[in-house]
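Bit of a strange request maybe. I'm writing a small parser for structure token strings and I need a real example to test against, not something I typed by hand. Could someone generate the tokens for this chain?
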Amino acid sequence: MFISFEGIDGSGKSTQLVLLRDWLEERGHKTITVREPGATALSESIREILLSNRQSITPSAELLLFSAARVQLVEHIIAPALTEGRIVLCDRYVDSTTAYQGFGRQLTMADVAACNRLATQGVMPTVTLFIDVPYDQAQLRMQFHPAAGEPDRMERSGRAFFERVRTGYLDIAAQEPERCHVVDGLRERAEIHHDILNIVVPALVRCGLEKP
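Reply from user aminoacidic:
Good idea to test on real output. This should exercise your parser:
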């Protein structure tokens, strides 16, 4: 089973991923946690390039770099883990490219879709959780996060960009309601986690990983 977490920077998606991983492992499920871009040596190197404030990257080059990192992750980690019967938890996946490079950078959606098809190799999440938080609230959270540092290249993209990204996520969820679930990220962590379990547990049952 493959579960992806999505949201703009500062949405709290990474925190919720950890909470779900811990819950799953407490119930005896074998999990693997990965992030995008990252998790392989090549993908982590690409991550450094993409997030570096020293880099000037065109939108099209950005799209191709994210796609290169993803296909390496899919082929070397995600697909093998799914074959082994593990539950894969991914911090960002293909919907990030549609939202960030398609809606945010305003690249041609046909080009984005073509790159996504190649990069995913047909491997798609069973469940995608979009933790929805408005831009201003997300920025406030990032400022007061204990690990907060200088904003990276992507985080510096500005309000208009991130509002387009958020619109993109909502559009994806509207088009694929069976896979993509919008979760209100403005509440307490425990409440959000409870909502996520209400989405994930039925999916686990359908996959034969939990009893009805």
